[in-house]
Design goal:
The protein has 254 residues and is of the alpha+beta class. Helix content is 49%, strand content 19%. It folds into two domains: 73 residues, Winged helix-like DNA-binding domain superfamily/Winged helix DNA-binding domain (Arc Repressor Mutant, subunit A), CATH 1.10.10; 169 residues, Beta-Lactamase (2-Layer Sandwich), CATH 3.30.450.40. A six-stranded antiparallel β-sheet has the order 5-4-3-8-7-6. The chain has a two-stranded antiparallel ribbon with strand order 1-2. Helix 2 packs across helix 3. It is globular, with a radius of gyration of 20 Å.
Length: 254
């Protein structure tokens, strides 16, 4: 295969992932023409890729008007991934134990490119339940986990990673870069970070790092609790979360 053919195929693969990422973010079926507009791609290329993805059941047709959405093949691929991905399997058990001890919602969170995402979640065992959309991207500075997930990066790498617009919080206020960097360094030293959620006026978020054998935070375990309960049980939730994150790190690094 010539170098030009390799480059064309690689570009086509990038476009295919752009299509899948865009549909995940939008969260609803779309026509190929709308997908092309959304990702800024040539219509002819997008139509061709959509046809190929439909043939492989990576996308599936929805309704009678040409809409497509993420297909069941992605589900099977995801299940295959989970069967062989120790972190997810072990983290699921850790989240169940956190919920058992605190009754609060527990999450495992990761970086997803330049964003933050909730990868796994167990809802709390209480009448008032808190939940998040798994796989939905959020600006890193909006999150407690973000202060831990970036701890291995230099200040310059952090500035390059985060979109400048992501420092604007939901209330319209801008988080100063200096404050964010200081919080990252302190959270990394403490092995813990918590704050009142900037995206929800009723909850408090706790996060603890799960570190690999090199000390890099590969994910976080989190508790999301009503603010009053978080204040009343702060030390217990902090202890449970840190202990759970450390146990998970030992299991996956053994």
């Amino acid at each position: 295969m010539s170098e030009d053919n390799i480059k064309r195929r690689a570009k086509g693969l990038d476009r295919a992932f752009d299509i899948l990422d865009f549909l995940k973010e939008v969260g609803q079926p779309l026509r190929p023409n709308d997908i092309a507009k959304g990702i800024g791609g040539p219509k002819s290329t997008v139509y061709e890729l959509v046809a190929s993805l439909l043939e492989r059941r990576v996308l599936e047709p929805v309704g009678q008007e040409g809409h497509v959405y993420l297909g069941r093949q992605l589900y099977f691929l995801g299940q295959a991934h989970l069967r062989h991905f120790d972190l997810s399997r072990e983290a699921d058990q850790a989240l169940q134990e956190i919920v058992r001890q605190t009754q609060e919602t527990a999450q495992m969170c990761l970086l997803n490119g330049r964003k933050y995402t909730v990868a796994l979640m167990k809802e709390g065992e209480r009448h008032f339940r808190i939940s998040s959309n798994i796989g939905e991207n959020a600006p890193i500075p909006w999150t407690a986990s973000g202060r831990l997930l970036l701890g291995h990066l230099s200040d310059g790498q952090i500035v390059d990673l985060i979109d400048e617009r992501d420092f604007v919080l939901p209330d319209g206020e801008r988080l100063p870069l200096e404050t964010f960097l200081k919080q990252i360094r302190q959270a990394t030293e403490d092995g813990f970070f918590s704050f009142d959620s900037v995206a929800d006026t009723f909850t408090h978020c706790f996060a603890a790092p799960v570190r690999d054998e090199h000390g890099v935070c590969i994910c976080t375990l989190c508790i999301v609790a009503p603010r009053a309960d978080a204040q009343r049980n702060y030390q217990q939730y902090r202890r449970v979360l840190i202990d759970s994150a450390n146990r998970l790190a030992r299991r996956i690094n053994d």
